[in-house]
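FORM 7B: Structural annotation worksheet

SECTION A. Query
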Amino acid sequence: MMRGAIRVLVPVVLTTAALAGCSSSTGSGTETGKNGDTAPPEAAETTGAGKGRTLGGPGSGCELPVTFGLAADWKPQAVTVEPGSGLAELAEQGPVTMVCEIDAKPAGNIGYIRVWQGKESGDDPSATLKAFVADEPGAGKAVYTQVKAGALAATEVAYTVDGELLDEPKKERAFAVTTPDGPVVVHLGGLDSDEHEAMLPAYELARSTLKLG
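SECTION B. Predicted structure
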């Protein structure tokens, strides 16, 4: 079974706090999509993309090497992988490990912004991001661009993901920056391409407001 198709199982290996935040996304009355994206019984048409608060600092839900603006109503939850767990690899992609996921369902959409962090290294953002995409099952049509994340140099990628659980390829997007604590990747998926497009304002808010923590 492909890792991307079963990433919904990641909460099994999380700490109690992280498990509590993730388990609510897989209750009855939902449709489960690839990468753990789930559909609530009724989804609103808005993203809640107005700036809510800043994520990344102490007490913000996820303590990160960076901070950025969190879209209104999106719910962050720290992800902590138990060392040596048999499912730990589900929370690893390329050189980075998932450390935070931000759920769009409270804002009326179906998907997550996920933050991934690597160990301290000399890799530039482009190398980090290419390794991240290379380790995504079904990834293709990747287009890389040099951008700014806040004032930091960053690399961004737009690509598609295809697989047997999907009716058609769906859009994905991510950007990477280098920090003194290691590389950081901020990724936006979605249940399908329509949901992905609807959530782009929240992703763009994160990219435009990003700062070193």
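SECTION C. Observations
The mean pLDDT is 79. The first strand starts at residue 31 and ends at 32.

SECTION D. Sign-off
Analyst initials: ____
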